[in-house]
Amino acid sequence: MRKLASGLAVAALVIAPAAVSAQVQIGPTLAFHDDFDFGIGATFGAQAPQLGEGIGFMADLIIFFPSTDGVDYFEINGNVTYDFPLENSTVLPFALGGLNIARASVDAGTLGSVSNTEIGLNLGGGIVFDAGSFRPAVGGRFEVNGGEGFVLFATLPFQVGNR
Length: 163
Fold this sequence. Notes:
This protein is mainly beta. It has a single domain (2-159), classed as Porin. The chain has one helix spanning 2-19; strands spanning 24-33, 37-47, 55-64, 71-83, 91-107, 113-129, 137-144, 150-155, 158-159. It has an 8-stranded antiparallel β-barrel with strand order 1-2-3-4-5-6-7-8. Strand 3 (55-64) and strand 4 form a beta hairpin. It is elongated, with a radius of gyration of 17 Å. The model has no long low-confidence stretch (mean pLDDT 84).
């Protein structure tokens, strides 16, 4: 499983820069993980029409704030998205799938600390609200292996490239 995930990550890093158009969105993210509570982070998104109509990328880094003292948790996610176009609508549903890198650390006081990093898969979707250069999105994703949970997220990205 790790070799497959590593291979997919390398392929995405090689292919993505060539396929991404100038429509780049960057902005803050708020999230809620069913095991690690609230989190904040940043999201990077881009459309890749060269790969097909409605295909894009969404990546984020989210730092969560678990209610348990001494526990630290963060995630890095890289997803391919597919937009389902609706005619004459400013609402755009999307599906996502990709990779998740999750790292949890526990401070055990005088015994030291323990940490674990895992790679997993994301499956989910959501809705983008098209308001010109401001394109907020809400969604959810199931994490298989890596974070092993369900994450609700809201992004507030702004377009930074040509439209």
